[in-house]
Amino acid sequence: MMMGDSFGSMGSSMASLFFLWATIQQIFPNHLKITIKEFLLSLFQQLCFAQRVSDHFTNLFSPYVEINFPESDKYSFNQAFSAIETYLESKSTDKSKRLRGSQVKESKGLVLKRNEAKVRDVYEGVNVWWEIVVETDGNRYYKLTFHNRARSLITNSYVKHVVQEGKSIIVKNKQTRLFTNNPSSQWVFGQNMWRSIEFEHPASFETLAMDPKKKEEILSDLIAFSNGKEYYKKIGKAWKRGYLLYGPPGTGKSTMISAMANLLNYNIYDLELTAVKNNSELKKLLTATSSKSIIVIEDIDCSVEFTGNRIKKENSSRERYGKEDKDENSVTLSGLLNFIDGIWSACGQERIVVFTTNHLEKLDPALIRRGRMDMHIELSYCTYEAFKILAKNYLDLDGDEAHPLFREIKTLLEETMISPADVAENLMARNHQINVEKSLRLVINTLEEKKDNQKSQQEKKKQKKFKMFG
Predict the structure, then answer these.
(1) Is residue 2 domain-resident?
(2) DSSP 401
(3) 195 SS3 class
(4) 241 or 306, which is more confident?
(5) What is the C-alpha separation between 382 and 447, in angstroms, rounded?
(6) Helices marked H in 67-180 — which ranges?
(7) pTM score > 0.85 for this model?
(8) Are strands 118-123 and 177-181 parallel, antiparallel or unpaired?
């Protein structure tokens, strides 16, 4: 490195020669210009040759070793890269001349981090140098430089120390993020497949409006899964879990997913299938997700390829063409199942796959059979138990006898189909002023209206049936 530095002044010497030549152009006559030009060109060639020779000998006899840690390996993110980045950012900032300030949440103070391209570190008395390198195609990698005499210490101990320390800091300071997939036209060399924002949804299982027994069952299952690394290894299954959330709109499917993420501190990958062209793209997207994550496909019944209509469509194609009509430029059920339940399901650990649907009967049985979707969770209309949770959340009323109007609401809930979202809307404080009596009266009025409408619709259906068979 010192030998390379000794030749570093050659660049400035060349710049001086070009400046000298510009001056000569203005002062000397033409015949002298030609002579001087030939001399300068000869000197420039000699300097370039000397530079090439010096570089060769520097590399040949340099006692320093370099290890590169790229940000990605083809389509897979290099976990070591983020661990190294976190480790280097956590190094002491008291001597750093370049810092970066950030505030993750309003409730938290300003965080200062090192913001230098080159960082020196010391490990057991050995100096090492880290440098972030950005290539012309946008790919990044960390370059680690150290003396050859410390090769064994660095490769066997130091690198592992950096990665483990970085990962522990990531877990400690992890902020849950919400990802969504970009169209493949925006992918750059296997990167930029996902974009994300910080996820700050306040949902929790404590505030989730649903039957307490069902809630406890789901909660226990999630905790058992997150602690099940050795168990899944023992039984020879990929460490993943599938949940199917189904029920009418407004019954809390999205809120349930948010509560899951907050409980386990997992990232959410909201997969938009309409932006995926084919199975190959789907595979690349899913393998680029991180461990400790929830992969969500909402309203999966809206995709015709994953519904019961798929069978009719295939039969129609066979009758028309005598063979299956396969669209190679679309995502298919088999492509999705290959990641959920096939050999690709083992690519990554500690992942949860969640499907949501408003119409369970429309889904292809192959998609939701037990073993693929391990738990089928019905999120139904608001019950009295769910209402009590909402009343506690919004009005600070706790218990069966918290208010005299509870009995009337209980009776109406047993006779009326209403979503928890509709009940919550009536309990919401107006202008941030809580009025318990008024809010409960609004709930009662809404329940009575819905009860009358539902009764009227049922009578119309009965009359229609009577006309058909009368």
Answers:
(1) no
(2) T
(3) strand
(4) 241
(5) 11
(6) 79-90, 151-153, 159-172
(7) no
(8) unpaired
Per-residue pLDDT reduced to its tens digit, 275-287 = 888 888 888 888 8
Instruction: Enter the DSSP assignment of 393.
Output: H
Are residues 354 and 393 located together in one domain of the fold?
no
- Label residue 102 by pLDDT band (50, 70, 90): low
Residue-wise over 169-189: b if at least 16 C-beta within 10 A, else e? ebeeeeebbbbebbeeeebee
Q: Which helix (H) or strand (E) holds 464?
A: helix 436-469
Pairing of the two strands 194-198 and 126-134 = unpaired
Same domain for 108 and 239, yes or no, is: no
- Say if 5 falls within a structural domain: no
Mean pLDDT of 60-64: 71
Over residues 198-210, the pLDDT tens digits come to 898 999 999 999 9
Place of tokens 């999966």: 300
In this structure, are 219 and 358 located in the same domain? Answer: yes
Distances (CA, A) of 65 to 87, 106, 152: 21, 44, 11
Buried-exposed string 197-211: b where 16+ CB fall within 10 A, e elsewhere: eebeeebebeebbbb
Q: Same domain for 225 and 128?
A: no
Beta strands in 264-385 (DSSP E): 267-270, 293-297, 351-357, 375-378
User: 161 and 224 share a domain?
Assistant: no
Separation CA 181–CA 276 (nearest Å):
9
Question: Which residues lie below 8 Å from residue 258, measured CB to CB, with a gap of 6+?
Answer: 199, 201, 203, 268
DSSP 8-state symbol, 346: G
The tally of domains found in the chain comes to 4
Whether the Cβ atoms of residue 397 and residue 265 lie closer than 8 Å to each other: no
What's the pLDDT band for 167 if we cut at 50, 70, 90? confident
Give the whole-angstrom CA distance, residue 223 versus residue 281: 32
| Integer Cα distance of 96 and 120 in angstroms | 11
Same-domain check for residues 398 and 419: yes
Q: How far apart are CA 335 and CA 282, in angstroms?
A: 8
Q: Give the integer Cα–Cα distance in Å for 319 and 302.
A: 25
Q: Which of 360, 378, 396 is the last residue of a domain?
A: 378
Most confident of 308-312, 330-334, 419-423: 419-423
**Residue position matching structure tokens 């318990």:** 436
One DSSP character per residue, 139-160 reads: -EEEEEEEEGGGHHHIIIIIHH
Q: Cβ–Cβ contacts within 10 Å for residue 378, how many? A: 13
Measure the N-to-C terminal CA separation of the chain; round to a whole number of Å. 98
